[in-house]
Amino acid sequence: MHRKLAPLGSERTRAITERLVDTLVELHAVDHRTIGLAEFGRPDGYLERQVSRWKKQLDASRSRELPGMDELVALLEAGIPTSSDGTIVHGDFRLDNLLVDSSDTVTAVLDWEMSTLGDPLTDLAVMLAYQQLGESASTSGAVVTDAPRAPGYLSRDETIQRYAVGSGRDVSDLGFHLSLAFFKLAVILEGIHLRHSRGQTVGSGFDGIGDMIVPLIDAGRAASR
After folding, report:
1. DSSP code of 81?
2. Structural domain boundaries of the chain?
3. pTM above 0.90, yes or no
4. CATH topology of domain 2-223
5. Residue-wise pLDDT tens digits, 200-219
6. 1 has pLDDT over 70
7. pLDDT tens digits for 34-48?
8. Over 70: is that where the pLDDT of 142 sits?
9. Among positive and negative, which fits the CA dihedral 211, 129, 118, 16?
10. What does the DSSP assignment read for 101-139?
């Protein structure tokens, strides 16, 4: 993705990433009841279920010692906040899951497999976690997304501020949501690492996946403090 953004120049890259944030704001502003999605999910207890679900996923894919993982899980279980208003949640919101046309307009949001009704700040946190992961992609053996390294890409603070202004939501404390986002990414990548180590997922792009897990765990622990 970095290779696609960089030739566009910093001004166009900034415009695209501003529209990335604006699209998330627009998604979270949709009244799911008026469009027939009142039963699309259960906002109440969403964060508790997320922690439980991804812990079970971890148990299914854990095959080695992961320093700090048990502490991160304990921090999440002990720190679940009261959920904010329930909105449509994409579940994997990032630039790689958007289609953008030649005029730099977002034309579609893809990959809705994890979508439901829940806490909108989880989408913001996932986007920020991918951004942090992408910014460090040049030093890792594998690349999940490297778009944030393109000149002009909104910074973390700019992303948070633009979302806060556009949505009107309080984003002053994203600690739990960021911890959860890093935990989810760590679990997803650990699953990929396990399948790759068993020869079930092949390709040179997966060789360094396993090395990315502990830094994600560390980021999740740091975010919760």
Report:
1. P
2. 2-223
3. yes
4. Aminoglycoside 3'-phosphotransferase; Chain: A, domain 2 (3.90.1200)
5. 777 666 778 888 999 999 99
6. no
7. 999 999 999 999 999
8. no
9. negative
10. -TTS-EEEE---TT-EEE-THHHHHHHHHHHHHHHTGGG
Look up residue 137 and give its amino acid. Answer: A
Q: Is 89 helix (H, G, I), strand (E, B) or coil?
A: strand
Average per-residue pLDDT for the chain: 91
Nearest-5° angle of CA 49, CA 55, CA 60?
125
Q: How far apart are CA 55 and CA 28, in angstroms?
A: 26
Q: Are 186 and 219 spatial neighbours (Cβ–Cβ below 8 Å)?
A: no
DSSP-derived letter for residue 142 is S
Instruction: Name the amino acid, one letter, at 196.
Output: H
Task: Please give the single-letter amino acid code of residue 78.
Answer: A
Of 13, 11, 14, the C-alpha closest to 3 is 13
**Residues linked to residue 116 through DSSP beta bridges, in sequence order:** 89
